[in-house]
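Journal club side-thread
Mid-discussion, someone asked how the predicted structure for our own chain would compare to the paper's figures. Pasting it here so we can look after the session.
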Amino acid sequence: MSSANGEFTKESVQSLEEGTLPDRIRNRKRGLLEVSLETNDTKKVRTRSQSRDQPDYTELITSIVKHQQSKLNPVQKAVRLLQTLYKKRLSSHGFLDAIDVLENKYKASAFIELEDASDRDNWLQRNANVEFEEELEEEEDI
């Protein structure tokens, strides 16, 4: 069939009248299909647009997307650090206040970069206005 006007070409009409199939059938989505009349096998033949010179970027794109999804942003890292180091030391209200402060990506980055535990404690007390449970217990004993 002609792709321009939808009519059958002479070759396809002749081959249909003779009862034989053409050796190659063009399928727009799949390129060329080669038909073997003896074995009834069909195999895909590359067209010029599907040349072997073009690399397959599917695997590369997939690996990049997976890598980006596995990376945590500063807010996520800061919240995980807060959970690991301060969940037991803060009241539930203080913990939520600290999370509110760490939702700001710049403050989260600063919190992550503080290596010294006492510096992180002071930073949390100043920015989140929290008190640690152990300090509360000491004040009650006095």
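Post-session note: The chain is about 55% helix and 10% strand.
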